[in-house]
Amino acid sequence: MKAAIIYTSVTGNTATLAEIIHENMEKRHIATDLIPVDSFDPAALSNYDMVAIGTYSWDDGELPMEMEDVFEAFEEEDVQHITTGVFGTGDSFYSHFCGAVDLFRDMLYVQSNLAVTLKVELTPQDDDIMKCDKFCDRLTNQLVLV
Ligand SMILES: Cc1cc2nc3c(=O)[nH]c(=O)nc-3n(C[C@H](O)[C@H](O)[C@H](O)COP(=O)(O)O)c2cc1C
């Protein structure tokens, strides 16, 4: 079983969320690679059984530019076997809150075995930490069912 969290973060909010989710996976004894997207080779994607994507949103709910290659890899490669989740941070001041999470969700629903999504307002708070636990529950339960 090969698992990864692939994320991007400029001001640290999504990185914090990725670290919390990573700790939760390790607590479940699921060894998980925690990889900033700049260090991820999209050609390696199909080697994984479980991938959680973490992204902030930009420019009216758009994907950050650095996420485009991994987004396209999911669209173009045979990744139906991968159980996926997508999480992100955003700011509800903007009209399309966590729009990049929605873009990944819609694509991953078609291309992969999408298990769960999570949206967080800026910096994760205590109730978000509980949601991270649920996020990992959903992800790992789906993994067993596949
Ligand atoms: C120019 C700009 C545009 C943004 N656009 C959106 C947006 O459309 N939707 C949203 O939910 N958040 C938007 N945000 C907020 C960021 O997604 C949010 O601050 C996020 O937590 C940053 O993540 P990071 O700390 O991991 O870099 C925007 C922020 C900036 C600076």
Walk me through what this model shows.
- With 146 residues, the protein is an alpha/beta fold.
- It has one domain (2-137): Flavodoxin domain (Rossmann fold, 3-Layer(aba) Sandwich), CATH 3.40.50.
- Helix content is 39%, strand content 23%.
- The chain is built from 4 helices and 5 strands; from the N terminus they run E-H-E-E-H-E-H-E-H.
- A 5-stranded parallel beta sheet has the order 2-1-3-4-5, with helices on both faces.
- Helix 1 (13-27) packs across helix 4 (126-145).
- It starts with a strand and ends with a helix.
- The model has no long low-confidence stretch (mean pLDDT 96).
- Residues 9-15, 56-61, 89-91, 94, 96-99, 122 line the site of flavin mononucleotide.
- Flavin mononucleotide binds next to helix 1 and strand 4.
Query: Could you describe the largest sheet, including whether it forms a barrel?
Result: 5 strands, parallel
- Uncertain segments of ≥5 residues (pLDDT<50)? none
Question: Could you tell me the radius of gyration in angstroms?
Answer: 14 Å
H-E order = EHEEHEHEH
Give the amount of beta strand, in percent: 15-25%
CATH first level: Alpha Beta
Cα separation of the termini: 12 Å
Q: Characterize the overall form.
A: globular
Q: What is the CATH topology classification name?
A: Rossmann fold
* Residue share in helix: 25-40%
Total helical segments: 4
- Mean pLDDT across the residues is 96
Bound molecules: flavin mononucleotide
CATH architecture: 3-Layer(aba) Sandwich
How do the strands of the widest beta sheet line up side by side? 2-1-3-4-5
By CATH's scheme, which homologous superfamily applies? Answer: Flavodoxin domain
